[in-house]
Amino acid sequence: MSAKNPLKSSAHDYFILSEDGGNYICQCEIDIGRICGTKISSFGGKDKNAAPTRTFNLKRHLARSHPEIMIIVEEKDKRHAATTASGIQRPTKSSDARKSISSFFKSDKVTITMTADNFKKHLIDLVVQNGLPLRLFSQPAFQGISGEMATKLGVSLDRQNVRNIIIEEAKSKKEAITKTLQNKFVFLKMDAATRHRVNYFAINVRFVNDSNQTITETLAVKDTKAHHESVYLQSLIEDVLKEFEIKKSQVLCIVTDNASNMVKTIERLNEANQFDSDTAMDVVDSDSNSTEGDSIVEHEMEELDHPDEVIDDILEESSKLSLIKHMRCAVHTLQLAIRDGLKEKRTASLISKIRQIVTACRTPKIGAILKRRLGKGALIDQVTRWGSTYMMVRRLLELKTSLEDLDNPNVVLSTAQWSEVENLERALSLPFLVTKKLQTEDLTAGAFVYEWKNLAFQLGQLGGSVANGITSSMAKREALLFENDLLLAAVFVDPRNRVLLTPDQMIQAKAALCDIATRMRGLLPEDLQQTQDNLADAECHSSSSNDETSFEKYLDRREKDLAKRKRVEKTAPVNVQLAAFKKLFNTALEEIEKYDRTCKMPLHELIDIYPDEIRSVATIVTALPPTQVSVERLFSALKLIKSDLRSSMKEDLAEAILFLRNVN
Question: What is the fold, at CATH topology level, of the domain defined by 168-282+628-663?
């Protein structure tokens, strides 16, 4: 063996250089009296006169052929590195001595950078985002981890204190949202659900912020105390609007399902709606000024030979502008149409037969066979959810071959029946895919109408009893959907889908856009804004007595006409301004009609280049939510928050958690 070079690895101890210095020869003993003798080149580069090297290759050879020696080499190299520094040999210290010295300078405790606010924030996240129960914070394990830190930060981990922290944080966020919603048009989404025998009513708000971004927030999750009637829901909604300082005239539309109590609730809200005279002046586009209105009057006054001709129309429109529109949830409406299609007698009989077979397939014996052969088993549906029926039918077709091999009479279908099952699966697959698309968060009205019309077209081409039944029901329910002028307006400003509207629907859409623009510009005269209330009061007064004569009714009507004439005389100049603005707005509508399906720009970018008169209005109507999916997701989160182990959670805490969960 060669003498050890202190600058080299101890691996060199097991090799010698050949006489010419070109190779290392391994001297490891592989048998009694026998050495390895493997030659390894000793030069690492082109310069053959360089000093011998190749330590890495020597170690690799030892690791591969002599692993026991390689272990010894590594231990020697470690000791050598620990005792040698700058060529000076130092005495070796025991590990115990080194440990005692290091412990003198280094503490076994750690320093954490944490403020009280950050600590509270993480506590809130544990409850809101991770769904941890409040009792966790008082448990010894959590106290052992964070108790000392909480004490020094002055934060109590008491259950009630953590509860108060969450509720106060929600209150703070609500105040911020209240300020954000001031003087903004909004859309509301509502739905009800039951969890652990508690009936909840949730309200989401959708609006366009100052950056022209569409935002959805949770306003409330209230316990209805088992009241589902429209009178109670109306009162509940009005309380929530008051809490967030939202005037009814700011609410453009409410999206709900097709339940009769929801429809009646909106009717009652409109009946009780007293048009706020300040609202039309409050909800004003930031780009519009009174000077613009004055210039319109100056340029257009001469063209209006008879400005009083528009008075009656404005009086009628002013009573309609404050009405809250009702949007029936697109997804829920589609589900009802599909359920109608599945009620056809032959189809219902087939589905019943499929359920019988699936029930037989879920028995332990057949289920085990299917699991072993295919790795999956049969699925049973929930009668109230047609989507699960589709999944049941699709899975049955996947199991078809294995079921036929079983030769079990309980899982047998004839060839004709299998053909009917395949047709049913094809008919249901189309609305199943569309339903998924309609559940996206950024769904626009134009995209919804396109998917709706496209589904009806494809089902019409497919044919069959199921497809025809769904198509027929969709046609009936479409009329209710398209009663909403705001939906038509949102489709109108989308050039790629505008072609889906009929000429009459386009007229309605333009009128709806003009109405919103009028409210935004604050062009409604104050007296006209009060017309609806005045007329309602007059009618109530005139009909309050059953004993009044026809002549007294005549006098009441005459007095009403005189009051109306005075209002007309007083507000005529503003009416001229309104008529002039409408003329300018209609010109802008003609401009955007130049864009059609050939335009490939995203809708939000396209709206940015629309004329000034319509840009803000188009941004608002495109924020119309065609579905109430966000509320459904809220109830899905409620299942996680109010679990079986937290069934006694109070309403205020549940609402605070769900509110913060959506905000965060």
Answer: Nucleotidyltransferase; domain 5 (3.30.420)
